[in-house]
Amino acid sequence: MPALDLAFVRSQFPAFASPALQGQAFFENAGGSYTAKPVIDRLFRFYHDRKVQPYAPYEASQLGGAEMDEARARLSAMMGVARDELSFGPSTSANTFVLANAVRQWLRGKKAAIVVTNQDHEANSGVWRRLADEGIEVREWRIDPETGHLDPGALVPLLEDGRVKLVCFPHCSNVVAEVNPVAEICAMAQAAGAFTCVDGVSYAPHGLPDIPALGADVYLFSAYKTYGPHQGIMVIRRKIGAALPNQAHFFNGDTLYKRFTPAGPDHAQVAACAGMADYIDALYTHHHGPTPASPLARNNAVHDLMRGHEVALLQPLLDYLAARNDLRLIGPRRAEGRAPTVAVALDRAAEPVAAALAAHGIMAGGGDFYAVRPLEALGVDRARGVLRLSFVHYTTEAEVAHLIGALDRVL
């Protein structure tokens, strides 16, 4: 596998040429990544040349609709699913809310249960837990309070009676960051007669998923954390999509990608999501040449490029933090098993520490990051929160060294 060409990668992101950001090292990528140039270019073109109602019989409208269709077609192909199995919505939190309402209607009055974890971001936890108000049993799959690990073995007794219809869990947590064995968990759930809903928000920025390999029935992530515009992206496989009640206008109920989008989409941002596919294709071509490959194969190759670079940069940071005795490093110590989203609990409030790092040119965050349940399960004082240091594949070795030096001075 070729090494990631960072000069090429960073040339694809206007932020790195912005005078306003010079001298700043960005370590809050888990809150939202920089936007790739193809996305910005498409958004600019849409607002300038296509800002009309799409799908009408005149050129600007036809071109706008074609760009929206292109985004859905290309991203779905890259993840190995049918075009109509990919939906756009205003955010992942909103998309999950709509799905939870559909599940509420589907399971109302039945002796059914769902499984949630206490490793999740609240967007893939709170909405599901509220189904208890309808008499649906909510079973909690709990993390290890020392490590944050989500043990697949602990799921087995929750599934034994056959009443569980849905298992909701993260690909990786936005504070624990351990990469969960999604394919194994999905196989366990489906063998017990349950669908799966995987929160991929914290994983997808490190490489878009191969959905058939994972076996997830629903997979959700945020485009704005994946180099794109502020949209939520949902993969909803046909079997679960047909089983759940329509949440859109009644006349859209037969179209799978409209079925869980009750409001009209943001046309320009949907169209701009094709720029995410442009970026992935550009990375593939630059590193592998114009060799023929399917969209899924190109995406998987780029995924591996991203992860390989991130793992190499992450291990020195983990080693540095693990060697300190004035903080608690949350999650695995080995880079291969986690995302480069690194949360540490300190003996003081985290937000002032993040502010102190800003004075050294480090952009990072402090707080609970809507991960209240996992932090409480780990015994972290919510009032203090955690310092979170998150990066992606466009981060450099020099920036990680800069971060470590800044931490030395601030801590």
UniProtKB/TrEMBL annotation:
Pfam families in the cross-refs: Aminotran_5 (PF00266)
Matching InterPro entries: Aminotrans_V_dom, PyrdxlP-dep_Trfase, PyrdxlP-dep_Trfase_major, PyrdxlP-dep_Trfase_small
Alphabetically ordered keywords of this record: Lyase, Pyridoxal phosphate
Span of domain Aminotransferase class V: 26-240, 306-403
Keyword field contains Lyase: yes
Coiled coil, from the record: none
Keyword Iron on entry: no
Any one GO MF annotation of this record: lyase activity
Source organism, top-level taxon: Bacteria
Protein name in UniProt: Selenocysteine lyase/Cysteine desulfurase
Biological source species: Gemmobacter aquatilis
